[in-house]
Specification:
15% helix; alpha+beta; 5-stranded antiparallel sheet; single chain
């Protein structure tokens, strides 16, 4: 299985500061599903090594959104 990384932004006052969570998934689709579950309450970026796959944004007013990175 491949290792993916979720990078959570700590807050708006610590630019660049983040918390990382690594997990294994058999493919990118499963990684996205796991990332969606793990980032249920805050925004995060999903990474495959040095390649950012997507950004998961959580907003109290607007709910959630998912933005894929361009290849």
């Amino acid at each position: 299985m491949k290792v993916y990384t979720l990078k959570f932004r700590l807050d708006d006052h610590h630019e660049g500061a983040s918390e990382h969570l690594q997990f294994e998934a058999p493919d990118m689709i499963r990684a996205l599903l796991i990332a969606h579950e793990r980032a249920a309450r805050r925004s995060a970026e999903l990474w495959d090594e040095a390649r950012k796959l997507c950004t998961i944004r959580r907003d109290e007013d607007r709910g959630q959104s998912l933005r894929a990175q361009q290849a």
